[in-house]
Amino acid sequence: MGETQNSTSQKAMDEDNKATSQTMPNTQDKNYEDELTQVALALVQDVINYAVKIVEEERNPVKNIKWMTHGEFTVEKGRKQIDEYFSKCVSKTCWRHHVEFIERKDLIHSFLYIYYVHQSIPTAQLPVSRISAGTYFTMKVSKTKPPDAPIVVSYVGEHQALVHRPEMVCFRENWLKNFTDAKYSFMESFPFLFNRV
Is residue 197 pLDDT above 80, yes or no? Predict the structure, then answer.
């Protein structure tokens, strides 16, 4: 008899708990559902952004220019072509750049012409920017290739090791932003060194 009474009272308690849980929402479950929904929405937004990026890259393939041949090459034409390449790749008008010829290296079978591209964002308050980004371009002119063969062009970002080729990877504006942001963060961490007038 005691067992029957216990099971009956257990059933009654279970029904009471079930009725209570149906009338009063569990706030812990609701918070969990809200957090789960937020995470799911963020994940979906990331996937959508990535898909849009891929579609844009398919519509706009690598932006490149027709680089000169070995027979056409001069130091000044090289500077002008790098300037043209930057004008094509960097679409925001706030960025300014200056191309400077650095040196010519004489190798066994070729000459390397090295240029430095100085990029910055001048403002009305600070026309000469304290923070800038730089890119090194190398034009390889072979001593043995025919004059109608195109020259080999590569570039590397300031303090970077990865070498890029314009026909394979278009220069990206966000690289400039990353360079300048990193420098700005460094300068902020040592205000006593960089806040001098």
Answer: no
N residues, the chain = 197
Pairing between β-strand 96-106 and β-strand 152-157 as defined by DSSP bridges: unpaired
pLDDT 10s digits, 132-179: 788 899 999 999 999 999 999 999 988 788 898 888 877 777 777 777
Q: b/e per residue, 43-62, with b = 16+ CB within 10 A?
A: eeeeeeeeeeeeeeeeeeee
CA distances from 186 to 41, 94, 126 (A): 34, 23, 19
From the CB of residue 88, how many other CB atoms can be counted at a distance below 10 Å? 14
User: What residue spans of the chain are helical by DSSP H?
Assistant: 2-23, 27-59, 75-89, 173-189, 191-194
Q: Using only C-alpha atoms, what is the Rg of the chain?
A: 31
Q: Which of 68, 66, 89 is nearest to 139 (CA)?
A: 68
